[in-house]
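Fold these two proteins, one after the other.
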Amino acid sequence: MTATQFFQQLVTGLLQTGPLEFIAVFAGIGSVWFSRKENILVYPVGLINTIIYIYISIKGNLLGEASVNFYYTVMSIYGWLLWAKKDNTQLKPSLAITYSNKKEWMQQLAFFAVFYLVIYFSLTGLKKSFAPEAIPWADAFASATAYTGMWLMARKKVESWIWWIATNVASIPLYFIKGYVFTSVQFLVLLVLAVAGLIAWQKKANK
């Protein structure tokens, strides 16, 4: 694909973007912005994004991503409850931003591996008879890294941003190929925000 063809596809895709996708994209960017600031609004704003993308992903045969957004919805409620807890003695959030230790890193890698394999083989089977346009290895990678990142985000682990960076890198071409150009642009913006979030949370954890 030449640069001209890429630009034409980008413009065409943006013009064909529906209102639901626009709302979901801006909600997603807003959610990550609040997350970087360690603001609890990350969860209610994020729920708008995830609920819309469940619908969009199913429509585009991105079944792994649909499962991710369902998982996001559940984990957003879980994270909202965790972040809302207060330390009664100091009247501040009881959950602090921390680094993962060696044991937690091993748990993260195992968590990722299990979900990757489950999603990959599930999509491979569905591709034959139900979702011929599915891309199992790419969808499974984007999904499994997102599952891991969301789990760690709820626990305020610095490493959650590393998993988000991996998710965004995989999702940019995945959604572009599927024709969701504006969503692909969203993941490019989220990639930049994820790098900024990693730096911000590292500073807070080091304190």
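Now the second one:
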Amino acid sequence: MAATKLLEGIRIVDLTSVVFGPYATEIMADLGADVIKVEGPTGDQFRHAGRPRTTPGMGPCTLNLNKGKRSLAVDLKTPEGKAALTRQLAEADVFIHNVRKGAIERLGFGYDAVREIRPDIIYVHCVGFGSDGPYADLQAYDDVIQAATGTTTLLPRADGNPAPRYLPSLIADKVAGLHGAYAILAAVVHKLRFGGGQFVEVPMFESFAHFMAQEHLFGATLVPPIEPAGYPRQIDPFRQPFPTADGHISLVPYADAALQRVFALLDAEHLLADPRFATPKDRAANISQAYAEIALRTPARSNAEWARIFAEHQIPAMPVRDLADLTSDPHLAQVGLFQQRTHPTEGDYLHLKPPVTFSAGSCETGPAPTIGQDNVALGAPPPTWP
């Protein structure tokens, strides 16, 4: 008998696109919710990121971002499309979307209108900027949020190049998606315990600012501040992977005792007599110089040699790998993060297993749907594209 899914019986109607909202609902689908992805006739635009092997709209990113969901492809500007969404909302626990407030109300699916359809609905609005602030009507994309939160000034602080730069990841989208996931779960728990739905707003700007400020607000936490913003350890230009004989290694002598062990392993115990490193206070004050001294010595051995030595002496360290090598990592292979599966239309692909494990309840999900794959099953006309 198959294990019960963790969110068995929770139905989510998902009218989000790109990454922010779909990442939140990917997590919900992984946990076993019935996620109905509502999209236009040509599909969510992020479906077209990358080249599909067989089917238009089945680019590589969608194979995991939309796994385990059902697709309802309709034109919400038509009576038929509105009727199809209304039918789904009547049976939904959660409605999540990232359409602007004015636009969703013109379509007839604002909060008050959806409550007429389903009085206890959990209505989740994914927005760029919170509706109570002066930026409320501005458009938001990951790059915009990285700029607005000061994230683009972190690399200049670390390497001295004054040009602001993006972190090369959709990090704001995904962080906001995680906030969206816990917001859904909290609202569902509240409904199960106390009854009734509610309106939930998940703003990307505030979510990412909250995320980045945990360490980088730093001295600006105090009023008035006595130190600048920016967590010094993270923006230290010398706190970078160290060169080895055949690459680079990440080495983190976080505690003072670990730093002393590293000096010993590098045959550099004499540095402890150096006034810069004579006491724990000295070593902490001159940690950048300690990193520089380490970097002079790590080229003496290979990545594999250092990884073995540091592991034996309880020093956190990992060789720097190329992004393309992640799928061959032995630990990730052992825990099954990347699972080779066969998609019904796209052939073999790597399915991302949820990273969190549970002793009870299944997190097994099916493949990502093609555009409008579930229209007929959901009571809508067959998709007209592709």
